[in-house]
Amino acid sequence: MDVDVRFARVKEARAVHRILMEAFGPYAGKVKPPFQVFQETPEGIAADMRRRRHRYAVALVEDVPVGTFRLTSAHSAKRGPYWLVSRLAVLPEFQGRHVAHRLIDWLHERAERHQVPELRGHVRTALPRLIRFYQHFGYRVLGYRSLPGYPKYLTVVARRLK
Ligand SMILES: CC(C)(COP(=O)(O)OP(=O)(O)OC[C@H]1O[C@@H](n2cnc3c(N)ncnc32)[C@H](O)[C@@H]1OP(=O)(O)O)[C@@H](O)C(=O)NCCC(=O)NCCS
């Protein structure tokens, strides 16, 4: 299966939204606190893309978007600039066919080209398989985030540029 990866265009916000809803749908009502992605709309995604607040990558099979992630440039006073990956998602019928693998490889190539010293991912601590997924790609646990009533609900994983 040929998979192309590139940044999403604003007109693809609806397709990105659909992938997110289908991929994260099984977590609805099960993972607490609820994923903010469920509040997202295609218009909100398009507005973030236009303002360059976030970029979204898309993985395409025969020109149809089947996978995505969100990329946000950020800066840590201690560790310098980094790119934050969130909302990694693949349509259920395309899962297990290395689409996420292609997305992550593309991200790593891009980060190396742009000399971004660190990549980070936000993963729910309640989903240890996903932490292992990131570890598989060379990420390690950097720390945790908490909310009132939800200690360490988020695991921050990071990978330094080689
Ligand atoms: C997690 C997700 C993005 C993986 O996408 P995918 O295209 O099915 O993953 P791939 O087929 O590219 O798998 C890449 C590698 O990770 C492993 N892997 C895949 N899903 C995994 C999982 N859930 N946990 C642990 N390892 C996993 C695979 O074995 C594969 O290893 P290999 O390349 O050595 O064979 C997809 O299952 C998804 O959209 N899930 C729902 C949304 C979600 O949980 N997003 C992540 C939020 S942090």
Describe what you observe in this structure.
- The structure is a single chain.
- The protein has 162 residues and is an alpha+beta fold.
- The chain has a single domain, classed as Gcn5-related N-acetyltransferase (GNAT) (Aminopeptidase, 3-Layer(aba) Sandwich), CATH 3.40.630.
- Helix content is 28%, strand content 38%.
- The protein has a seven-stranded mixed β-sheet.
- Helix 1 crosses helix 2 (42-51).
- Bound molecules: coenzyme A.
- Coenzyme A binds at residues 23-24, 88-90, 95-101, 123, 129-130, 132-133, 136.
- The site of coenzyme A (COA) has 18 residues, from helix 1, strand 4, helix 3 and helix 4.
Low-pLDDT windows of residues:
none
Q: What fraction strand?
A: 35-45%
What is the multimeric organization of the chains shown?
single chain
What's the structural domain tally? 1
**H/E series:** EHHEEEHEHEE
Straight-line N-to-C gap:
29 Å
Note the overall shape: globular
Overall CATH architecture: 3-Layer(aba) Sandwich
- Give the distinct bound molecules: coenzyme A
**Tally the helices: what do you get?**
4
Please count the beta strands (DSSP E, at least 2 residues each). Answer: 7
Q: What is the CATH class?
A: Alpha Beta
What is the gyration radius calculated from CA atoms?
A: 15 Å
Helicity range of the residues?
A: 25-40%
Report the sheet with the most strands, covering strand number, pairing sense and barrel closure.
Answer: 7 strands, mixed
Class of secondary structure makeup: alpha+beta
- Overall average pLDDT: 96
Q: What strand order characterises the main sheet?
A: 1-2-3-4-5-7-6
Can you say what the CATH homologous superfamily is?
Gcn5-related N-acetyltransferase (GNAT)
